Every structure is written in structure tokens, then in C-alpha cells.
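Below is how a single chain appears once it has passed through the pipeline. First comes the sequence as given, then the structure the pipeline wrote out for it. We keep one example in the README because the format questions we get most often are answered faster by looking than by reading.
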Amino acid sequence: MAKIPGGTWSADLRRISFIAAAFLFMLSSCSGGGTSTGTAAASRQIAAWGDSSTSGIGASSDDSSYPAQLQLLTGRSTFNGGVSGQTSDQIAARQGGAPALLTFPNNTLPSAGPVVLESESTFPITPQGPGPVTGTVGGFHGTLSYQTDGNDNPQLAFTRDDPGAPKSIPPQSPFHPDTFGREAQINVFWMGNNFYDPPGLESDLAKCIAFLSTRRFIVLSLPNAGDEGIGTTSYDLLAEINAALARAYPDNFIDIRRILINNYDPTDPQDVQDHDNDIPPTSLRNDNWHLNDKGYGIVARQIAAYIAAKNW
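Resulting structure:
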């Protein structure tokens, strides 16, 4: 997808991030010795889960995705767990809340080497990413990878770390991805934009949140595309989805769709038309769907402000 050039507003972002980093340094310098732990430090880190809007499609560079801008603003390590095109069940499988269920040929893990799975409940890995994923299935640690067969059909293959005797693996065994402690971090969920599925999103999101070892999480509302304005079926469906998310997570919900719409330029006729149609303004979008650098900057600032207000 084509990417847009960055604007001068990025200089302001760098100044803000410098001030934030300096402030955090002063706080750490005054906290006294011996009280900080690795767990406490990790709990301040951020993990952003989602699809192309999280990965940063539409931004001028990876550094302009909202997780990258959020890291600059907060001075905190921010993991970008966005993979373009993925659905909520695929995202939940990568996060760990709803593991992919794997079935091996003859229900057997071979002694060594990659084995193409007979079936899988979902594909946590797709051509768009995130690349091979390490984790455990049936008590065996290894690497799950994506490939295609001779007819370009998608496949998943598992390679155990340590060769050994063949082992029986029950059908539909869960693959638990390595989390690297992200379940203890501040998790931001922006998922459900692909193939609207309200019941599926509700279930997948609930599993992701239940998987966390903390109650510090944020759920973002789903934005509508430029052709999903008032009067369209998608507009009505998104309204129902976002209302349900707000009811389910009233203390952890940011209506980022509404915030983006309200940040229209009243001097821009197209933005005014977009605002009247209740869609994110063209000035904040790179295409019909994805945001540009400025739009992602608004998302990052809203999340940073929310985290600060919660004193997380």
C-alpha cells in the first residue's frame, strides 16, 4: 500500500517525547534504591494487539504507527502486535487468550524436523506476519511456521526444539505461544475490523482479557471506513459493536472513532462533509480505511493520556 510523506508535526512529537522521557527519568531517580523490580518495570510496558491499523498501514514509516508514536510519547517499551488482515480469533491466538487448536497427522509428533499439520482451528500466522512463532503444544516446545503447498494453499508446520522419540499428541491440542511476559503489561486491543463478527469479537476479546495477569488494559472502538457513513449497513453494525464494547468494558474503553471524527478540520470542505456523514475525516486518513501519520498520532496521544489518567 502506498505510504504518505510525513509532516512537520513530527517535530512536535519528538519534543513531547523528549519531555516525557526526561520526566520519567526524574521520577526513577527520585524513587530510591532497591524498590524497583523487573516485574514492576515490565508492568509499565505496553503491548498493542490488532490488525493493519495497529501495524501501521497508511503511515509514512514504521516509526509513525500508533504503537511507535506511543512509545515516543510515554518513554515506555511498546510492542507492536499488529498484523494486517487478521481477524479477532487470529489475534487472540497470537496473544495467547484463545490458542490455535492443532491436529498432527496420525496424531503424532515426529522425532524431528518440521511436520505439516493436518488441521488447525485458525491461522495465527499469515503471509502478512508475524513470522514464525515459538510456543508449546502437547508439552513440547517448538516453532510454528507458515508455508504453502504446491497449489498455494496455506499450511502450518511445527518443528520441535529437541529431537526425540515420536510422541502421541491428542487432536485439537492448543498451541500456547510464548508471551514474553506481555500478559502482565498494559494491553491495548484494537481488533475486529476485518470481517465484522460481533459474537466472535466479543468472545475473542473476553478470552484475551481473561488471559491477562493484570486489569490494566484498553479497548478501542472500531472506526468506520470512508464509505461506511450514516445510512449504510456497516455503519449500523459498527454502532452496535462499539456500543457493546462500551457496555462490556466501561472502565477500559476509549471511543477512538468518535475522537477521530471530532478532530476534523472545520476549514476543509471534505472534512466537514465527512463529519456530517459521521466518518473519520479525510485529512486524518491515507485511504478509505487506514489513518495517516497525523491520525495515528491522535490515537497515540489519547492512549498516552488515558494511561496517565489511570496512573498506570
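Residues 38-94+180-310 form a domain with the Rossmann fold fold (CATH 3.40.50.1110).

See the next section for the split statistics.
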